[in-house]
Amino acid sequence: MDFSEYFEPVNINEGDLNFNYKENQFLNSIELFANQDISEFNIALIGVGEERNSENNGCAQAPNHVRKYLYRLIQLNATTKIIDLGNLKVGATIDDTYFALSSIIEHLVKHNVLPIIIGGSQDLTYANFLGYQNLEQTVNLVAIDSKFNLGKAGEEIDSNNFLTKIILHQPNFLFNYSNIGYQSYFTDKEEIELMSKLYFDSYRLGQVQKNIEEVEPIVRNADIVSFDISAIRQSEAPGNRNASPNGFYGEQACQISRYAGLSDKVTSIGFYEINPELDTNGQTAHSVAQMIWYFIDGYNHRKNDFPVGSRKTYLKYMVNMQDGNNEVIFYKSDKSERWWMDVPFPSHNKIKYERHVLVPCSYQDYQTACNNEVPNRWWQTFQKLS
To answer: Is 369 a domain residue?
Structure first.
């Protein structure tokens, strides 16, 4: 793939990017695109200034606005190779943009390069999702969002209903969707019921904030992560037309981003709906820059301990429940002390769902099983596999 046809390279001598960078700043630890062999890199930054399907007019200008702050952060000391591909050339139609972005993501993921998308509007998550359709695997999508972004079948896609397009896409290769941080006053009761019927996971903002550490196994199970900046409270991230008084604090958003980076399974992430026109003192862009920094820091500390193949080096716990009629098997990594649950599945689904039978979980799930209760994560996965 000729990436030069798709991207406008970053010019650090123009606008807000023109700055006297010091040797230890982030910019000096990455490469700017100049027709390099992309497969030599681990992470690729992609700006996508597309907003035609969003009511958040102004978010198309976000990529360089975020770069202004990202480039000035302290560089991370690691051997991870990062390239900034620049800004995707927006297509004549939005479908052209979707096609270009999905093709690029497919190419990057096939070559084990992790794309970090700086949007643009959140309907670009749909294009990100389409990038996986030819990879012959089902995928998990995690969204950090105050809403579910559901609509009616047949509606034209936009940033408020793109999840419906993903769910109804044929062939269906979405295994699981998880929402982190939805807010009840933005969410219809029927939408919550639909999430339950589909055995998808949804976690209310207050529930998550009580125990932010429980987010880690949720994002550890993701292939794709989509972060809507409106999930962060307005006082912390004012640069969004849908900003709300309530939401995550900035440090919580950074912690979630780092959890995503730590996950061996996450192969793409996007940050969306940043609007420079409303961004007081660059506060929102600075927050997103720090979130990206923390994601990369997490990536640098990946343990590569997802228990595939032999599990001899893992601690195995077998919990008998309901008078011995049911058994849940847990595995604990000796590298990271993270937990997984083994979920049985029909033999005819072996190839299609093999990636999903080991469900990331927490010590709390193990305690739940020890108290003779089936962990909710185990049960929902079992229902999808049955």
So the answer is: yes
Backbone angles phi, psi at 257, to 5 degrees: -60, -40
Residue 213's domain is classified under what CATH number? 3.40.800.10
CB 283 within 8 A of CB 239: yes
Alpha-carbon gap, residue 39 to 279, rounded angstroms: 35
d(CA 206, CA 171): 35
Tell me the H-state helices in 169-237.
Answer: 189-197, 205-210, 215-220
DSSP 131-176: TTTTSSS-EEEEEE-SS-----TTPPP-TTTHHHHHHH-SS--EEE
C-alpha 86/C-alpha 64 separation (Å) is 9
Q: What is the pLDDT of residues 62-98, one digit of tens each?
A: 999 999 999 999 999 889 999 999 999 999 999 999 9
The string of pLDDT tens digits covering residues 93-109 is: 999 999 999 999 999 99
Q: At what angle do helices 283-300 and 250-262 cross, to 10 degrees?
A: 30
Of residues 87, 46, 90, the one with CA closest to residue 292:
46
Cα 166 versus chain centre, distance: 15
Do 74 and 199 share a domain, yes or no? Answer: yes
Cα-based torsion angle of the residue sequence 349, 352, 354, 360 in order, rounded to the nearest 10 degrees = -110
